[in-house]
Amino acid sequence: MNRTEFITVTAIILFAAFILGWFASWLVHRLFRSTRADMSELDHMAQQLHDAEEARDAAVSLLEEREGEMRSKLRGAESELAAAMDGLRESRTEVEELRSYIERKLARR
């Protein structure tokens, strides 16, 4: 095989590989191309996803707002409880003092 025949055979093989590759590409695009209905469905799904994300964001912000309100109410209730406990403690101390005073007065008679 001389040089000219080798170049010719190589060119034919490369051309055949190109044609085979082009045919394979055409076949893949023909078999797996997306239709307008598919694109419409994808657009619809994307819109639904967007709406769901907005609803989730709204729910999260509402949850955070309610959680803040509940924390505020809890702090108020805790401060009221602390005040009530202080008042109860003072009342118990006063009751004990009055009991001891009464017992001393009764013991003197």
**What is the helix content?**
over 70%
DSSP strand content: under 5%
Low-pLDDT runs of 5+ residues are none
SSE string, helices as H and strands as E: HH
Overall mean confidence score, pLDDT: 93
- Total number of distinct structural domains: 2
* Computed CA radius of gyration, to the nearest angstrom: 44 Å
User: Structural class of the secondary elements?
Assistant: mainly alpha
What composes the largest sheet?
none
How many extended strands? 0
Q: Report the end-to-end length measured between terminal Cα atoms.
A: 144 Å
> Which of globular, elongated, flat, extended, rod-shaped describes the shape?
rod-shaped
Number of helices: 2
What would your notes on this structure say?
The protein folds into two domains: 1-33; 34-108. The mean pLDDT is 93. 0% of the residues are buried. It is built from two helices and no strands. With 109 residues, it is mostly helical. Keywords: Membrane, Transmembrane, Transmembrane helix. The chain crosses the membrane at residues 6-28.
Helix and strand topology:
Blueprint (H helix, E strand, L loop, with lengths): L2 H30 L3 H73 L1
Task: Provide a concise account of the structure shown.
The protein has helices at 3-32, 36-108.
What key attributes describe this structure?
rod-shaped, 109 residues, transmembrane, membrane, 2 helices, mainly alpha, transmembrane helix, 2 domains
